């Protein structure tokens, strides 16, 4: 595998400063189906700064996974076209050649998935698979590759890595496999790690370990993290900013604390309120009526309006992702007049919350 | 166990005594003790939650409660009687009172049958009333779970996940059960739908006087819906008590760790600073640790924990725990 183009090699180290590491503008993805061309996502705009941890949240079918995959240009066979730009460190990935993309994937942008078992090859040892990434992207000998693999396995918290490096994936537990995947994704020191539901298949106690690892690694090695998940708790524990998607669009972009305490979009607010809490409360859960419109019959204007308690005349107009002040963005023209409840409504008076607040 | 729970309570709809369920591994060389000595009563009209991680044995218990699996040892009594002692025909009709619903409605519905036909099937198998009477009952069940009339003629692929789970609930209701075991019934549903389905369970319980055994790995779901909750680890209960007690004053180190590990959608100012992150993963149920099974991951483990199995004891009224040191002050640092 050859080296990348000069333009891509320019900065090996994440640059601090004004320019975001990743800047997605007007991204839209189309698919071929038997019923014609479907627009899966559209008008996706967001930035990720070097070393920043951003959660992309939404329910199944909202386009969060396909957005992650499109950054690496890993698109399924029925892919029909892409609009917009994906600027990564100044280079537009949307117009890179296949060869340029190969030089970026795994080296400067890495990705991990929900199911580590399907991402690992069962017939190779885990050490071989981690070292492979390194050997493809840099000119290192076998011995050095092994030494760096051992070091990486230690970093991701695998006890006695010299015993584990020659294990096959089936010999490891689910949590250890995900650690191996993280080791493989980080071995080339990427500037951006895209993690798509990395803990959804894991038990809660193991999930806590993996989230702590991702947070720790992002902090110490200044790797930016794009965490794709349906779990608002996971985002709250791991990320500093949260981008909410609905029906193929970004509908809100805010810091995690702002979004949880005072969401600006009725959908974000509805999601937060519909979550059951750990403190027992046997009342009814507020829920969002109806269901997400299907791609084939997406309404014009606000895509959430059929389910929205605040919909009025005016919502049938196209909604822009507008600046809401303080770096926040929201796709709802009524955001300033709505005073929407967040995760703490009604105020949590349980003992655990009181303890936590002290 | 102690004598205190040996006699089933009068309001017990299910009594479980020293339940063991064992499986042979596929090479028949080893035995998996999926459930290894569990005691509890489910009280009439309550929602009894069981939480545990994968491999804890919670699904095996659920299946055993409705006799989809037979106990390897111990007893499960339904309303004070042992269904396994009933003649075959009586056992079959007895079973209608104790239903189970699973996680994945796609696997539970035949894609080639209409919704109405799926809901009718249990009534037909049970030969309830005339054809028109059965159809009336099936339609009534669909209406009860909030599905419009015309859904009866549709096929599963035309419905969303939440709607399909409603169909499965309707089908379980047709035979007018006393109790439903719900095994991860909202785990496959999207967040905005989950609340709806949990509300439906609560409505049905209030209107029909149902009892639920709610099995889940999701602490928030179990805390929301259950009156009492049991925490399972490696085939055994480690704690059992009123949900509020267990969630806010947990006694077992495993429960404390589980509660601490749960990611909460709270702003940073309200999150606990020090969370307990357990090391390692759940050991194999083929060869569980001696003494206390949690000791290999327990931050408070002592030599005694290796030597002796902790007694299952009622440390506070109605609040049971299996830990040698659960009554030490400042043990649970919450």
Cα radius of gyration of chain A in angstroms: 21 Å
What would the principal axes of the Cα set say about the shape of chain B?
globular
CATH architecture of the domain at 3-86 and 214-321 in chain B: 3-Layer(aba) Sandwich
Strand order of the largest sheet of chain B: 5-6-7-3-8-9-11-10
Tell me how many strands of chain B there are: 11
> What CATH architecture label of the largest domain in chain A applies?
3-Layer(aba) Sandwich
Order of helices and strands of chain A: HEEEHEEHEHHHHHEHEHEEHHEEH
CATH superfamily of the largest domain in chain A: P-loop containing nucleotide triphosphate hydrolases
Can you tell me the CATH class of the largest domain in chain A?
Alpha Beta
Largest sheet of chain A: 8 strands, mixed
Q: Indicate the mean pLDDT of chain A.
A: 88
Average of the residue pLDDT scores of chain B: 91
Compose a concise summary of this entry.
By secondary structure, chain A is an alpha/beta fold. Helices cover 32% and strands 22% of the residues of chain A.
List the helices and strands and how they pair.
The complex is a heterodimer of chains A (358) and B (334).
Chain A: H1 6-9, E1 22-33, E2 36-48, E3 53-57, H2 64-71, E4 79-88, E5 91-92, H3 98-104, E6 109-112, H4 116-119, H5 126-137, H6 142-155, H7 161-164, H8 174-186, E7 192-196, H9 204-221, E8 224-229, H10 232-238, E9 241-246, E10 249-255, H11 256-261, H12 266-274, E11 322-325, E12 328-330, H13 351-357
Parallel strand pairs in A: 3-8, 3-9, 6-7, 7-8
Antiparallel strand pairs in A: 1-2, 1-4, 4-5, 9-10, 10-12, 11-12
Helix pairs in contact in A: 5-6, 5-8, 6-8, 8-9
Chain B: E1 12-24, E2 31-43, E3 47-51, H1 58-65, E4 73-78, H2 88-95, E5 98-101, H3 105-108, H4 115-125, H5 131-144, H6 161-173, E6 179-183, H7 191-208, E7 211-216, H8 219-225, E8 228-233, E9 236-242, H9 243-248, H10 253-261, H11 303-307, E10 313-316, E11 319-321
Parallel strand pairs in B: 3-7, 3-8, 5-6, 6-7
Antiparallel strand pairs in B: 1-2, 1-4, 8-9, 9-11, 10-11
């Amino acid at each position: 595998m050859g080296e990348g183009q000069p333009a891509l090699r320019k900065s090996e180290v994440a640059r601090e400063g004004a320019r975001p590491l990743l800047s997605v503008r007007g991204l839209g993805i189309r698919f071929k189906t038997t019923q014609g061309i479907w627009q899966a996502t559209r008008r996706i705009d967001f930035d990720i700064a070097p070393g920043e941890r951003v959660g992309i949240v939404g329910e199944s079918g909202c386009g969060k996974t396909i957005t992650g995959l499109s950054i690496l240009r890993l698109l399924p066979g029925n892919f029909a076209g892409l609009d917009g730009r994906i600027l990564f460190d100044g280079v537009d990935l949307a117009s890179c050649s296949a060869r340029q993309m190969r030089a970026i994937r795994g080296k400067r942008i890495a990705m991990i998935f929900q199911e580590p078992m399907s991402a690992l090859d069962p017939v190779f040892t885990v050490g071989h698979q981690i070292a492979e990434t390194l050997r493809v992207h840099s000119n290192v000998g076998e011995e050095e590759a092994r030494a760096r693999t051992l070091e990486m396995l230690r970093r991701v918290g695998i006890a006695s890595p010299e015993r584990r490096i020659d294990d096959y994936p089936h010999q490891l537990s689910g949590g250890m496999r995900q650690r191996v995947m993280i080791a493989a994704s980080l071995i080339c020191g990427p500037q951006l790690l895209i993690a798509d539901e990395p803990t959804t298949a894991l038990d809660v106690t193991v999930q806590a370990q993996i989230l702590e690892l991702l947070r720790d690694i992002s902090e110490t090695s200044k790797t930016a993290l794009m965490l794709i998940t349906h779990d608002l708790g996971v985002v709250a524990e791991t990320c500093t900013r949260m981008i909410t998607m609905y029906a193929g669009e970004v509908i809100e972009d805010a810091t995690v604390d702002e979004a949880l305490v005072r969401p600006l979009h009725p959908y974000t607010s509805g999601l937060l309120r519909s979550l059951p809490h750990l403190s027992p409360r046997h009342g009814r859960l507020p829920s969002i009526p109806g269901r997400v419109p299907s791609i084939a019959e997406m309404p014009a204007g606000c895509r959430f309006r059929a389910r929205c308690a605040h919909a009025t005349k005016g919502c049938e107009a196209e909604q822009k992702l507008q600046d809401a002040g303080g770096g926040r963005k929201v796709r709802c023209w009524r955001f300033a007049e709505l005073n929407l409840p967040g995760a703490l409504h009604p105020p949590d008076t349980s003992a655990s919350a009181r303890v936590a607040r002290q | 166990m102690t004598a205190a729970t040996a006699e089933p309570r009068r309001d017990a709809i299910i009594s479980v005594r020293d339940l063991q369920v064992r499986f042979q591994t596929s090479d028949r060389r080893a035995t998996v003790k999926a459930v290894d000595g569990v005691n509890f009563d489910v009280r009439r009209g309550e929602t009894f939650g069981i939480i545990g991680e994968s491999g804890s044995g919670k699904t095996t218990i659920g299946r055993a409660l409705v006799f989809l699996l037979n106990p390897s040892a111990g007893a499960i009594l339904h309303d004070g009687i042992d269904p396994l002692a009933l003649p075959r025909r009586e056992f079959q009709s007895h079973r209608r009172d104790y239903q189970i619903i699973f996680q994945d409605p796609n696997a539970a519905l035949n894609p080639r049958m209409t919704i109405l036909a799926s809901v009718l099937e249990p009534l037909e198998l049970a030969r309830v009333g005339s054809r028109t009477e059965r159809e009336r009952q099936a339609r009534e069940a669909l209406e009860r779970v909030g599905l419009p009339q015309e859904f009866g003629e549709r096929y599963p692929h035309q419905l969303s996940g939440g709607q399909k789970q409603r169909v499965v609930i309707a089908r379980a209701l047709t035979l007018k059960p006393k109790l439903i075991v719900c095994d991860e019934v909202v785990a496959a549903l999207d967040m905005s739908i989950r609340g709806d389905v949990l509300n439906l369970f609560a409505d049905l319980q209030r209107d029909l006087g149902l009892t639920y055994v709610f099995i889940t790995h999701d602490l928030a779901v179990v805390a929301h819906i259950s009156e009492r909750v049991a925490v399972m680890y490696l085939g055994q209960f480690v704690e059992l008590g009123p949900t509020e007690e267990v969630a806010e004053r947990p006694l077992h180190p495993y429960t404390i760790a589980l509660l601490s590990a749960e990611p909460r959608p709270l702003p940073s100012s309200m999150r606990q600073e020090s969370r307990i992150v357990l090391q390692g993963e759940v050991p194999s149920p083929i060869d569980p640790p001696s003494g206390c099974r949690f000791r290999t991951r327990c931050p408070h483990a002592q030599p005694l924990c290796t030597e002796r199995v902790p007694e299952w004891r009622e440390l506070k009224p109605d609040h049971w725990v299996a830990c040698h040191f659960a009554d030490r002050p400042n043990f649970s640092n919450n």
